[in-house]
Write a structure and sequence with these properties.
- This protein is α/β, with parallel strands linked by helices and 603 residues long.
- Helix content is 39%, strand content 20%.
- Among the domains are: 50-168, NAD(P)-binding Rossmann-like Domain (Rossmann fold, 3-Layer(aba) Sandwich); 264-362, Helix Hairpins, CATH 1.10.287; 372-469, Rossmann fold, CATH 3.40.50; 502-589, Alpha-Beta Plaits (2-Layer Sandwich), CATH 3.30.70.
- It has 20 helices and 25 strands.
- A hairpin with a 7-residue loop joins strand 11 and strand 12.
- Helix 1 (30-43) crosses helix 20 (579-589), helix 8 (175-188) crosses helix 19 (491-503) and helix 10 runs antiparallel to helix 12 (325-356).
- The chain is elongated.
- The two termini are 29 Å apart.
- It comes from Kribbella italica.
- One of its GO terms (molecular function) is monoatomic cation transmembrane transporter activity.
- Keywords: Membrane, Transmembrane, Transmembrane helix.
Amino acid sequence: MTFFGSSGASTESPPASEDAVPEVPPSTGRRRGRASTQADKQAQTPDSRGVVVCGSDRTMLRVVTELVSSGEQVTAIVNPASRHIERIGELGAQVMGVRVVRESVLRRAGIDSDGTKPSAARALVLLDADDVHNVHTALTARDMDENLRIVVQMVNPRIGAQLHQLLGDCVVISGPSLAAPAFVADALEDDELTWLELGGRRMVAGPAALIREKVTVLADTTSSATPDLLPQSSDDPAGDIVLGTGVHHLRRKRDVRRTGWVMATRDVLDRRVRVIAAVMASLVVIGTALTHWITGVEWLRALYLVMGAVTSAGIEDDVFADAPPYAKVAAVVVQLTGIVLVALLTAVIVDSLIGARLSRVIGGVRGRPKNHVIVCGLGTVGARVLEILSERGVAVVGVEQDEEAPGVQTAHRLRIPLVMGDSSQEETLRLAGAPQAQAVLALTDGDITNLETAMVVRDLNDDVRITMRMFDHDLAHKVERMLGLGHSRSVSMLVAPAIAAAVANRRTQATVPAGRRVLLLTEVTVERDSVAVGRRLGELDEPGGLRVLARADGVDWDWSPTFERTLRAGTRLAVAGTRSGLARLLLVTRAPHRPGRSGRIGP
């Protein structure tokens, strides 16, 4: 099972060029170019069988577009209520309007194998927003065809991590993991770091000064004009480009502080509460004085009696037994007034708590924050953005209207200030500190809401960096070109290529620049009958060309592998290498496609 979630990842097979960035002329070395080309042809062997796609949301439209444009025969199982059903049919896909996906529906779509001949469909893509439905459909399809390739988009990564045990050949796509690093990079104008999912862990590659918890050194670009890739001169080689699991904090988190209980108490005790409390205090003072003068009791007892009356605790009858009638009437009036005031006070406090909500009152923004990032819309993508920004130590404020949104709990867990309200309203954005912010990310599910948010933010702050999440490509292009409101990104546009690559069984790889050369980080599976089966893991390492970082024979990854271990079919490897080094690895880990073909390990 492969997890896709890298920033700046390429889904294409490695080209036949040398290990240089585009501006560097390719190498004329025939040997290396031939190896790369041969590996690419094996990776892209055509298959005339079709692909079945289930879903009804925006991502499905993008995925079908991507698959059809790449020449796939697509059967789309769509809910008839979807507003994209007509557009999906216009793209050239065969559309089946079905509300519930059952075994009979999958069989009609071409998923049915009796063990002697394959199904008419070679892959199934599940894009339902409900993880439970996706898992149920995936299990049903696996029972129908044990060789079917299944690609699933999952919201809950913990469930996705267990699918490999249940389904075998399964690829899990995480939209938030794919999109969040791109939004963070826009907010921070940071193109030095490359975020990726590798070997079951979320990793980051970049300058050593920014990376903490270093895993390995990828390159040394300081010693000479030619970078030293994958240095192995010592147990702990020096280098300025490294791979790690986290980054150093850019700013202190306390630059933006939550309101806390002190500020919450102040917000609850608003003007209405203070007015009612002042009236009750006046009644107590006046009533204490009159009780003392009329009944002749001492001051403290008079205060006690009046406070009991105002708060509806009762009046001692024996004290007023000999008082004039008007005094008894006045005592009753005071008591009734107190009952009304206590009821009003209770109602006002409850209204304040309900209106402001505890999440807004306790977790709001204290003071006037500066140079922070505002994340508007705390759905699954917004929640992931909050986590990454928090890990980097960036001062951040969340804005959300729905208290049940996933990112609200994330904000509370990470102690991130939170403003509950409509992000397209100026008052809400002012509470979040938009006039002093350095960047605003509009990540709600509505294009119009994100556009309105961007326009209000631009009116409040001309210098702020704005990134909008927009599905409508034409609208996004016009907004960027004509209104100048900042960048726009689409989660579905980021997810669709990764799904198409998974369907075609192409690797997803992250590209890490090292000077004027590049390194590729990816995962490779040792196929049955390949040359690598039975060899030692250490034989795959190639100084300056390839490094094995982790291995997995099941679900769990071993990031400290024993290089004397023997490779077997199905072993997955997390590797870092040059393009030519990776091409040679693919030659020995893939099963031969024609008789007489051989491969070798090493340079």
